[in-house]
Amino acid sequence: MEISCTEALLLPSQRLKRLFLQIIWTEMQLLYQLNDDDCFFPPADRANESGLLAFGGDLSPQRLIVAYANGIFPWYNEDEPLLWWSLDPRLILRPGEMRVSKSLRRTIRSGKFEVRADTNFREVMLHCADTPRKDQDGTWIQDEMVDAYTHLNELGLAHSFETYLDGELVGGLYGVSIGQVFFGESMFHTATDASKVAFYHLHSFLARHDFKLIDCQQETGHLVSLGAYCIPRKEFLDELKALTREATLVGNWGNGQFEPLYLNIEQPEKLQFRSYNIDEDVALFDE
To answer: Are 96 and 228 contained in the same domain?
Structure first.
């Protein structure tokens, strides 16, 4: 795969805040700008030490599917450009290996929560966006992301598992499905164990349907407690090459109206992107 590089340039964005520049831009070697006339990406292993790979593009269904199939996902805050990441190492969990505590098993058996799938996708995302996160000021789930992933859900490629208590949505998660991989994005709960119960039912569904991998992205104590662990990005990407070529269960996972379909997600052998080499000695200023 061939990638061309331009001379050293500064990213022409006055919207970036100084703190963001100091933390991110001075760490990188190269940052790639995505093309507007295609949906392809540079190799994920070109990401810098923080996992940042590229900027630009859009959140179209085609680009999102190509991104996930290549181990890349979008993450950006308000007033920042659309940024694409591939982390090393990568947190995963294999269907059939979830760790279920005795207390969680009792909760599941009690029937305390009603569990549904793909019945309230947008609301799950909105709850995830509103849930306070440790060490985060605000949310990374922008309105355009809610619209984009809800469209993926309508196309049968993104899915939610939801928990209800007395008819009220109190927990859930969402993610993207390609081949035999489920790419988890976010979860929330407003009642104890509500998100864990949703994850248990997602895990059970994936195990029944012969999924091989759950991508949990980055390490958190919550996911590690459920059996997730980190693997090198190279190992993760090698698995994706095979697993995302398998048939994808497209449709509504809640009502059983889904079917296996093969997606065309191959990238050309040769790609060209504009790249930016940021010199640490160059000062970038706010507007």
So the answer is: yes
CA-CA distances (angstroms) from residue 103 to 56, 99, 193? 45, 12, 9
Question: What pLDDT, on the 0 to 100 scale, is given for residue 7?
Answer: 26
Q: Range of 31's domain? A: 18-86+272-276
**Angle 177-99-242 (CA atoms, 0-180°, nearest 5)?**
35
Tell whether 140 and 254 lie within a shared domain.
yes
What DSSP line would sit under the chain, residue for residue?
A: ------S------S-S-HHHHHHTGGG-S-EEEPPTT------GGG--TTSEEEE-----HHHHHHHHHTT-EE---TTS--EEE--SSEEEE-TT-----HHHHHHHHHT-SEEEESSSHHHHHHHHHHS--TT-SS-S--HHHHHHHHHHHHTTSEEEEEEEETTEEEEEEEEEEETTEEEEEEEEESSTTHHHHHHHHHHHHHHHTT--EEEEES--HHHHHTT-EEE-HHHHHHHHHHHTTSPEEEEETTTTEEEEE----PPPS----EEE---TTS-----
What tens digit of pLDDT does each residue of 216-250 get?
999 999 999 999 999 999 999 999 999 999 999 99
Do the domain assignments include residue 80?
yes
CA distance 217 to 46: 17
Q: Considering its fold, how many domains does the chain have in total?
A: 2
pLDDT tens per residue across span 254-268: 999 999 999 989 899
One domain for residues 113 and 248: yes
Beta-carbon contacts of residue 266 (< 8 Å; ≥ 6 apart): none
- Verify that 193 and 61 share a domain, yes or no: no
Predicted model pTM: 0.86
Q: Is residue 4 part of a domain?
A: no
Helix axes 121-130, 143-154, angle to 10 degrees: 150
- Structure tokens, 218: 């980055």
